[in-house]
Design brief:
The complex is a heterodimer. Chain A is α+β, with helices and mostly antiparallel strands. Chain A has three helices and eight strands; from the N terminus they run ββαβαββαβββ. Chain A is globular, with a radius of gyration of 14 Å. Chain A starts with 9 loop residues before the first strand and ends with a strand. Chain B is of the alpha+beta class. Chain B is built from 15 helices and 19 strands. In chain B, strands 7, 8, 9, 11, 15, 16, 18 and 19 form an eight-stranded mixed beta sheet that branches. Chain B has a seven-stranded mixed beta sheet with strand order 1-2-3-4-5-13-12, with helices on both faces. A two-stranded antiparallel ribbon of chain B has the order 6-10. The chains are: A alpha+beta, B alpha+beta. The interface between A and B is large, with 42 and 48 residues.
Chain lengths: ~140, ~475
């Protein structure tokens, strides 16, 4: 299990038989969404290898917070795919079911990033967005790779 | 999986009796050993699929079944549109029409031994693979639409292959009924530079030799003999298919309730076949099938160019091309009647028996070639569809080994460098931009493909024809 260094704000991978689970944890829903996006990119490469030099902005809307989460990850996946980029830094704002995301990264370079897999999509499997007893938000799902 | 929950019908057939809201039984084709190794999630998912409206006969799992998204991977289910049958984006999967094609090279094992390194290098250089790779084609809107209508036929007419190839592709290389107008701009944007790319994960191009023939007559009909060199290509509809799967799964998840479909699992999101959403998905999904067929056709062309450089006299002929993530309208006999059914195969291969009208003339007596992918260091197989498979599971068979270990666990067990070196010592050259990717795809992270194929044959889903062993593996 890979865990970033902050005790309150971190990302993890969790086991799935064929694919990979991504989980973001943070003091707010937005932070959990941001960390989960880092976990998503960490299925592809070490985020530390990715320079956050190019900014891309995305937005989506859903009335259900779990669907909003899966839509967010799928936007990140689509931008990586269409632009041949990898991202390492994220900023999310959520207001009345509207999500605005800022993604920073750079062009994918095989010799530099040695990308392990390409993520096909974020799924509804193990999809959860909730606030734990410790007050931290958790956002997670399995991604198909 | 706990065997006590199943009714044993034979050594390779196990039933889940209908319980609760199951409309039909679940049927798992596998040996006792393979069933025991299956995740309990397979039991749950096979049972859940059996609860969907309009399902016919049974919810099936092939011997390579494992935990999927709503449907198990290795799942087969047919739905009758006249009985409120549904279509499910999860029942097809994200990589629409992912599949395998095998090319006969006309070369023998002895012909390539001196040139193996050169060939591996040339293939790795010519076949775009891995994250961030782009193909040689850039498709503007009108070309994209033409490709989504035309599939491999479009590619051949563009000069990527031979007309003769089309006879040896399911649907003769073009899925009818595609409706590119239902393919979103986002999906098109992702595909603009991806035609002719392998992708990553378990996708590959392998140069293989025919290590063993099990049925000489059928093998001869397919044009293969012991020690022949063949090339197998495993990939799908790339970003376009992924995006279609993503968008329709999401839309169906929200719409199912409006169709009064009670979902045992959100991931089983679906819509009636005869509904605006069901019909839109069908049109988009068929366009994605054409995308996959075009993709494999262009990669075939690139492969031929490489072989022409290294072996100027070699002529690569297409043995067959199968897709294993689809939903297709097919005619099947049910209770003595011919029925038009929408058959979902998620990680399962269509396996028509001899005399099926869909088969090319040369394979009429042999049955449909069923191409089973391996895992770098393990064998691949060529099987042939059986007459019995029609009655067993709507003419379906397994598609590969199926994972037995998570990617995370695999990277804990193996290092990519070590695997590449070990495979090299066995005479297998692996070309990949990512050692971590190689570790995640370690042969040991998959079920025993020999056992899966043996179970498939014993269950009479398909007959063994030939065993292939890898010499060169190009992975993304």
């Amino acid at each position: 299990m890979s865990i970033a260094d902050s005790p309150t704000r971190r990302w993890e991978h969790f086991e799935h038989a064929a694919d990979m689970g991504v989980r973001g944890i943070g003091p707010t829903r937005e932070a959990a969404f941001e960390e989960a996006a880092v976990a998503l990119c960490a299925t592809i490469t070490d985020p530390a290898l990715v320079r956050p030099v190019v900014l891309i902005e995305v937005s989506c809307h859903a009335s259900d917070i779990e669907f909003l989460f899966v839509d967010w990850l799928n936007l990140v996946i689509a931008e990586m795919s269409a632009r041949r980029m990898i991202f390492s830094k994220f900023e999310v704002t959520i207001l009345d079911g509207h999500l605005h995301g800022r993604l920073w990264g750079e062009a994918a370079v095989p010799d530099k990033h040695h990308p392990a897999v390409e993520v096909k999509g974020a799924t509804l499997t193990e999809l959860k967005v909730f606030q734990g007893a410790d007050g931290l938000w958790i956002a997670q799902c399995v991604v198909d790779v | 999986m706990d065997l006590d929950r199943l009714t044993r019908i034979s050594n390779t057939e196990w039933w889940i009796p209908p319980a609760g809201k199951m409309r039909v039984p679940g049927v798992i084709f596998a040996t006792e050993t393979l069933v025991r190794e299956m995740d309990d999630k397979v039991f749950e998912q096979v049972s859940n699929v059996a609860k969907l409206p309009g399902i016919v006969k049974a919810s099936f799992a092939m011997p390579d079944a494992h935990w999927g998204y709503g449907f198990p991977i290795g799942g087969v289910a047919a739905f009758d549109p006249d009985q409120g049958g549904i279509i499910s984006a999860g029942g097809v999967g994200f990589d629409v029409s992912c599949g395998v094609r095998t090319l006969i090279t006309g070369l023998k094992l002895a012909d390539i031994s001196l040139f193996k390194k050169d060939l591996a290098h040339a293939l790795a250089r010519a076949i775009p693979a891995g994250v961030g790779s782009t193909g040689r084609l850039h498709l503007e809107e009108d070309q994209m639409t033409a490709m989504l209508h035309g599939g491999a036929q479009w590619a051949v007419h563009k000069g990527y292959g031979h007309l003769a190839d089309l006879d040896h592709i399911e649907e003769r290389g073009r899925m009818a009924g595609a409706e590119p107008e239902h393919v979103s701009q986002q999906a098109r944007r992702r595909m603009r530079d991806e035609v002719g790319t392998l992708g990553s994960g378990n996708h590959y191009l392998e140069v293989q030799h025919v290590a063993e023939i099990f049925n000489a007559q059928t093998a001869a009909a397919f044009g293969i003999h012991e020690n022949d060199i063949v090339v197998s290509i495993h990939c799908g509809s790339r970003g376009l298919g992924h995006q279609i799967g993503t968008e329709f799964l999401r839309e169906m998840a929200e719409a199912s309730a409006s169709y009064n479909i009670e979902l045992p699992d959100r991931e089983l999101a679906c819509a009636p076949i005869r509904s605006p959403l069901g019909e839109r998905y069908l049109g988009a999904m068929r366009a994605a099938i054409n995308c996959a067929l075009a993709n494999r056709q262009v990669i075939t062309h690139l492969t031929r160019q490489v072989f022409e450089e290294v072996f100027p006299d070699a002529e690569l002929q297409l043995l067959y091309d199968v897709s294993h993530n689809t939903c297709k309208l097919e005619s099947h006999r049910v209770n003595g009647h011919e029925e038009q059914l929408f058959v979902h195969r998620k990680g399962a291969t269509r396996a028509f028996g001899p005399e099926a009208p869909e088969l090319p003339s040369g394979y009429k007596t042999a049955g449909q070639p069923v191409l089973i992918g391996g895992t770098m260091g393990t064998a691949s197989y060529i099987l042939a569809g059986t007459v019995g498979s029609e009655q067993k599971a709507f003419s379906s068979a397994c598609h590969g080994a199926g994972r037995s270990m998570s990617r995370h666990a695999a990277t804990k067990h193996w290092s990519g460098r070590q695997l590449v070196d070990e495979l090299a010592a066995q005479g297998i050259i692996v070309k990949s931009p990512s050692l971590r990717g190689v570790a995640e795809e370690a042969p040991g992270a998959y079920k025993d493909v020999d056992a899966v194929v043996a179970a498939t044959a014993e269950a009479q889903l398909a007959n063994k024809v030939a065993k292939l062993f890898p010499l060169i593996v190009v992975k993304g």
